[in-house]
Design brief:
Elements (H helix, E strand, L loop, with lengths): L24 H7 L8 E2 L5 E2 L5 H16 L15 H17 L12 E5 L6 H10 L2 E6 L2 H13 L7 E5 L17 E6 L7 H18 L27 H4 L4 H13 L6 E7 L6 H10 L4 E9 L2 E9 L3 H11 L4
């Protein structure tokens, strides 16, 4: 077989990621029969779906979550982001490695490991994967009431998630940890996929670029641009690249959001072992490092990730010195 790069290649994903191989559509259809309506042979005569079709992408996610994570009921309103499951799983597995690296290589499993998911969204994918793969306890926060209501519906519809995932509304849109991290509460990890863009216009342009790239990869002429709806949501028929305003942009974009997160993390530094955040743009890293120096973080790590040609990374930092990290493990992981 030729070594061409085919749609669905997952080269570069974490070794424990269940989605390293191309999608097994026969297996996925068996797990979730509605997916069959969207499976077609692509230009390489391989089974695939139309990734420009929002309903097809959502149905694929439903099949993946049911087949690999035992999630029988999962859905999101059409205006919310529909996340790529393989990439989301990679972040979770790399976080497990981060904890293991400070635990003599032993992976910490179970509900004693507590994770704060900042901006968990309507889809709840990070907590689902983290709970199913490692048994961790999650607290998911968001500023959007509708997102949390949908996420709570997912928890309620899947009994295995009850008691393992807690959801909290962040009432202060300018805050990250304040108002949702309770006094004396502790977390082993915090994680975040921050808004990428600095404005709605930038978000729309980014969506249009993704659409044009997808159309070119399918050998089709690009369609008309996407126009913002009056509500500030992404409209049109390209909802798999859509999302609510808070999911897509914020003041200062990715750099501004992470800088605020870093500054605020210092106030709760004793309550979290490792703070982490995805950083989509490599150009953002110097500003992130400057922010971390300003708050005197004890240790900073940058972990690279990849999915095919797409490169990403997350930055992790802690305010606990070596002795403090050892004491944390003794106190909180004694039963892990």
């Amino acid at each position: 077989m030729s070594q061409r790069s085919l749609p669905g290649d997952k080269s570069g994903l974490h070794p424990r990621n269940r989605h390293r191989q191309r999608y097994d559509f026969a297996l996925l259809v068996e797990a979730h029969p509605p997916l069959a309506a969207f499976v077609r042979l692509n230009q390489y005569e391989d089974a695939s779906i139309d990734f420009a079709d929002a309903q097809a992408v959502k149905t694929l996610n439903q099949a993946l979550l049911k087949c690999y994570y035992g999630i029988a009921a999962w859905d999101i309103p059409p205006q919310f982001l529909c996340p790529p499951i393989p990439g989301r799983a990679d972040y979770v597995h790399c976080l497990a490695d981060l904890l293991a690296a400070g635990n003599d290589g032993n992976m910490p499993y179970g509900g004693n490991v507590r994770v704060l998911d900042i901006g968990t969204g309507a889809n709840l994918v990070y907590p689902i994967i983290g709970q199913k793969e490692y048994g961790w306890h999650f607290v998911g926060t968001d500023i959007n009431v509708e997102a949390l209501e949908n996420a709570q519906g997912i928890v309620a519809a899947n009994p295995g998630l009850a008691g393992a995932i807690e959801l909290r509304l962040q009432r202060n849109v300018g805050a990250v940890f304040s108002g949702v991290v309770q006094e004396s509460e502790r977390f082993d990890l915090s994680m975040c996929n921050p808004p990428f863009h600095a404005s709605q216009a930038a978000a729309m342009a980014g969506t249009e670029r993704k659409w044009h790239h997808l159309e070119r990869s399918r050998g089709k002429p690009a369609g008309k641009g996407v126009r913002p709806a009056r509500s500030g949501r992404m409209s049109g028929n390209r909802l798999n690249f859509g999302g609510q305003a808070a999911e897509l942009y914020c003041e200062g974009g990715e750099q501004g959001f992470i800088s605020r997160m870093v500054k605020e993390s210092a106030a709760v530094g004793a309550q979290c072992l490792w703070f982490t955040t995805l950083v989509s743009k490599a150009a953002t890293l110097p500003a992130v490092y400057r922010s971390l120096r300003a708050v005197d973080a004890y240790k900073v790590k940058t972990i690279d990730m990849a999915q095919g040609q797409k490169k990403s990374r997350f930055v992790a930092w802690t305010f606990h010195d070596t002795a403090g990290q050892r004491a944390w493990r003794r106190q909180h992981w004694r039963d892990v």
